[in-house]
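Bench notes, bay 3.
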Amino acid sequence: MKQCFFIMLGLLLFASFLQASSLGVFNEEYHVPKSIIIAFDANAVGTTRGEVNVNKNRNNQISIGRFSFDKIAEDNDFIEIERLFMVENHEWKDTNGTHIMNIFRVTLRDNENMEQALLDLSNNDNIIWAEFEGLISFFNVPTDDVNGRWNFRNDIQLPQMWNYLSVGHDVVVAIVDSGVKWNHEYLRNSMFVDNSQIFPYRADDNQSKHRFTDWSIWF
C-alpha cells in the first residue's frame, strides 16, 4: 500500500513538472515576441501606483534600483519596461495581492532568453507572477450562418475590417453602452445608417416602438 502511495505521488509530481514546463515554453505562434508581463509586489517595490524609476546602462538595458530584478534584467537583456494600466483606486488588489498599476510589460532585445527570463522572474521576490504575453488573433472572416444574412456588411466595410488582423498592441477597441452623440463632428461623417431599420413614426401612435434611437447605426 505504501509503495502504491509513493508511485501515485511520483506520478502527480511528474505531471506537475510537465505542466509547469509546458507553461514556460515560448512559442511565437501563441506569444508576443520579446514580451513578458509581470506584476510587482507592492511591498517589495514600495508602491501600489507602479512608480518605479527606470534607468538604462550603456548597453541600453533597464534597471529599477532593485538589485535582484536588475540582475535578471542584465542577464536576460531587458531593454524596455512599461506600466500597462492606470486606475483610480490604486489600493485595490486581487486575491494574489496584485495591484493593477503594478502590472508591467518587459521587453527583451530578442527571443533567445525568453524562457530563462520567465523562470528567473517567476522565482524573484519582487515579482508576484510573470507570464508570456498571449498573442490575440482570430479567423479573418466569420464562417457562421449569420455571415450570409449580413446584407449590409459591404456597406460598412466589414470585410476590410475583418482582414485587419487584431494582433499586437496597436488595436483599440471601445465598448459603449451608454448612448452615442451621433452628430458629433468626429462621428457624423463616419456614420452608416441601415435604412431597413427606419420606420415612419406618428405622434399619435402610442404603440410604436420605432424611435430614432432604435435605428441601426454603425461607425
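Next record in the batch:
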Amino acid sequence: MLSEGKRHYRRKCIIKLLILLFTQPTIYISLILDYAIIFMKKILTVFYPTVTPIHVTTFAIQFARQNSCVIHAVYLSEEDESGNLNYSFPNDLSITQDFSGTENISQINSQLIEDNIKIFKKECEHNGVTFRIEKNTTIKQLIDETMDSNLIIADSESNFIEQILPKIHCPAFITSTTELPQKVALMYDNNLSSKLAIETYISLFPDLANLPTWLFSINPDEEDEMEMKLYFKEKLQPRFSNLMLQIATGNTKNEFKNFLDQLSAPALAVMGAFGRSAFSNFFKPSLARTALKEKNISLFVAHDKKF
C-alpha cells in the first residue's frame, strides 16, 4: 500500500499532466510519445552518410511494423577513428576530385546526406513507423548503442561490417537484396552459440517459419550427428512447416560455399556469434566474406538473446 506522502505526490503529478493536457496539448502529446518510445523495441539501421540502400530501409520498416519497434537510423561519421568506412565510390566525385576540389566534394556530400535522410523519413512516415535519426555517429558509439537494441540492420556491401560484427551486443541482420528471404539455412555446429542463434531467429522472425528451411552441418562426428537429429526432431520440427536436414562431408570451406550456391532464391543464413561458432570463423578476409558476397544471401548473426 502506498504511503500518504506517495499518494499525495501521485495526485500532484496527475493534476500537472491534466493541466498540461488542456493548456499545452502539443507538449503533452510529445511527452507521452517520448515515454512510449522508451518502452518500444528498438532496432538500429546503419548507413554510410551518402548511401541509404532501399533494401535496408524496406526490411527495417517491415520488421518495425510487425514488431511495434522504433527505428533508430544511424548515419556514420564520414571520418571515423576506426578507419575508412566508405563504400567504393559512393558517388562519382572520387573520379573528378582533382577538378572539383575537396571543399566542393564536402558540400555535395552534405547535400547527399540530407537528401538521403529526407527519403528515409518519408518512407517511415508513409508506413506509420516511429523513427529517430542520429548523425555523425562513430563506430564506437554505434557498438555502445547496440547494448540496448533488439536488432541491428545493415547492408552487406558496407565496408564497416567486418568491424562491427564481432563487437556488437545484439543480433544483426545483414541484408544483400531488395527481396525478403525465400529460403533459410540454419547453420548448426552443435554448440551453444549456434543453438542460441536459431532460437533467437525463431523468436524474432516467426513469420518466416513457413519458408523452406534447412538445418545444415558439415562433418559432424557420430555423437554430434545423433544430437543434431534429435534437436531437429524434438525442438525444431514442431516450429517449422517445411524443415529439412542436410549433412555434408568433405572440405569444410568448399562444402559451405557449395551449399550456399544451391540456395538459388534470395536466402538467409543463420549462424552463431563471431568467435563462438565454427561457421562464423569463415567471415574473415581470407574467405572474402563468402556469404556476404553472394548477392542472394543475407546473414543473421546472434550474439545474445534480446527478445
